[in-house]
Each structure stands twice: as C-alpha cells, then as structure tokens.
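Good morning C.,

I know you're traveling, so I'll keep this short. The sequence:
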Amino acid sequence: MKNKKGLNEVIVILVIVVLSLAAAFLLYYNLRNITDEQFGDEVSCFDNFAITQSVFIKEACYLNSGEIVVEVERKSDALSLIDLRFVFFGDNSTKWKIVEKKCSDVRTLSTKYGGYCSIPNQDSEINYVFNVSDLEKKNQVKLVITEFSDSEELSCLVDTRTIKERC
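The tokens, ready to paste straight into the viewer:
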C-alpha cells in the first residue's frame, strides 16, 4: 500500500510539471503573436549593437495638439536602408512608412505636407512631423528600419521612445 501512495505523489508532481510547461508554452506563443501582429515580420535588432547605435530616435514630442515631431538621427554606418517605419501607440496603434517619395501626412520641420520624404543620410538628423489630428492621443513611438543586407531585406525594431507632451 505504501508504494502505491508514493506513486500517486509522483504522478501528481508529473501532472503539475506538464501543466506548467504547457502554460509557459501558451504564454510564449501568445506574446509572440502579439508582437507579430504589431510589427509583421520584423525582428528586434537590439542584439545587433551596430544597427541600434546607427539609427535611433533622439526625441519624440507633441509640436501641437495635432502634430508629433520625431527626431531621428543616423550615424556613420554601412546600412542600405530601404525604409523607416514608425508605429505610434495609444489606445490603438498607427503606422507610417517613410520611403524616398512624396508623403501626404508626414513632413519635416522645414517643409509642408505633400512634400518629399527622405531617409536620413549618414551623419545627419531629420525631424519628421506626423499629422495626428484625426487620431486619439499617442504616448509611445517605435522605429523599425528595413535594410538590404546579404541579398535580402531585414526589418528590425531599433528604438522605442515615450512621446513628450511638449517640444
């Protein structure tokens, strides 16, 4: 009888371990899906120090109630940037993509909406101004870059900043 009692305790412990592993797997899977929904195929490049130190957000703030300024700095690098993507978070997320062409709802501090959007050259900064007048309040911005490397495109989340109330 004593051996059966000990066996029951072992089975209970094994069931608890299996349930714990299943719960950990489900948590990991759900968190991964949330990240994939927000950023698509992008991966975090925080482990690649050269990329995260090359392109980053210096500051993000409200210029007025309908515009957010995001100052992006690019250092000397060997990156072949294809685009910059900005993901703004509040109650919902809103995305903008900067490529080398005209932009309707993004400008720089020195241009008007509908002008040419560009990706920062090496050793330069650009202050992007985003028209958020039709959107709910945003409190955080993430910068995702797409780079052409080794004959393939790689998208990386490189920086996250809290948006200040005033510039």
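Safe travels,
E.
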